[in-house]
Amino acid sequence: MSVPPPARVGDSVAEIDTPALVIDLDAFERNLDRMARFAHDTGIRVRPHAKTHKSPSVAHAQIARGAVGQCCQKVAEAEVLVHAGIHNVLVSNQVVGAAKVARLAALARHAWIGVCADDPAQVRAYGEAARRAQVDLHVLVEIDVGAARCGVAPGDAAVELAKLIADTPGLSFEGLQAYHGSAQHIRGHRERRAAILTAAQAVQLTGEKMGAAGLDCRTIGGAGTGSFRFETETGLWNELQPGSYCFMDADYGRNLDEEGKEKGEFENALFVASTVMSAVAPGRAVVDAGHKASAIDSGLPTVWRRPDVEYAGAADEHGKLSLGAKAAKPALGDRVWLVPGHVDPTVNLHDWYVGVRGGLEDGVVECLWPVAARGAMT
Ligand code: PLP
Ligand code: MN
Fold this sequence. Notes:
InterPro entries: Ala_racemase_N, D-amino_acid_metab_enzyme, D-ser_dehydrat-like_dom, D-ser_dehydrat-like_sf, PLP-binding_barrel. The chain is α/β, with parallel strands linked by helices. The chain has helices at 25-42, 50-53, 56-64, 75-83, 98-107, 120-133, 156-166, 189-212, 228-234, 250-253, 343-347, 359-362; strands spanning 20-24, 45-46, 70-72, 88-94, 112-117, 137-142, 171-177, 219-222, 239-240, 270-278, 284-287, 302-303, 309-314, 319-323, 335-339, 352-357, 364-370. Helix 4 packs parallel to helix 5 and helix 5 crosses helix 6. The mean pLDDT is 97.
């Protein structure tokens, strides 16, 4: 059984049933335009990350503005993207297991497919699958630039792996994956930049050693919404992978800019629409969006443009609002707009995006986009 969308095209905002995942299309498009302008002005390639949006509709909007393709983390996400006509997809991750690798190779019959490796056994598995499917897989060596997640050590270990890729029929060596995940939410601007400049030393060293070994890094990829300006500034990376910028979230909103202000350069464009379902207790109200509607791994959602109201606690299906002393008390049935703490896992909780044109106050539903890769985990 498929879940029906919580609104119809042409509905007023007030008619959207809740909880619902709502895109403010005007803010969303301004975010896409801002990143496209940055890419144009600096000459860098942008390959936005579909782990955030899981939606071919969003991907097409990014590619229409000059993005070179998409990143994703999972083969199942890549399948959704390729089947929706996106012909340039990098799985910015390790793909492990014969069945998954075979699916990845099968996709390469229909699209340019890149993938990462940090282990010789993995390179061999990619090679076997590519030869069996008679395709070419583009493999990036992932190096650990400070996040202590996946990736070989920068330098000689990366060169060894790159040689193996280059020597493996069915594979072509594409370059380096150098993503610094743990730097993205370092709050201080100076400290965040310093983390990327340290990562840049690892990239530079590895790039030089690759060059000395006669290996050409066509792509040096990495960067997220919190850091992409810094990777660009170094001149070392040539492809950016920001995901969250298209929607923003409360956690990214807490990153500080150069002046120490909590003002993200992108606008909040994704909201969880909720409804007050209980307002009997003094100083408190309860909305119908708990942590099954808005992910709380990076902090609770915040209440949009209501600094006097705090989202103070999430249960499965209940969100508890704590009202400031002078706050006007929301009434039963009132609409409350929540800004998710973390967009990526929030999107994965919903089947539909409701796209609204003309603002959250009196806009109109313009589109309903399926979260097509929702739950695409394999
Ligand atoms: N690249 C990789 C490999 C990632 O894992 C992520 C997010 O975790 C991103 C890019 C995009 O990050 P963000 O959503 O913070 O822009
Ligand atoms: Mn994220």
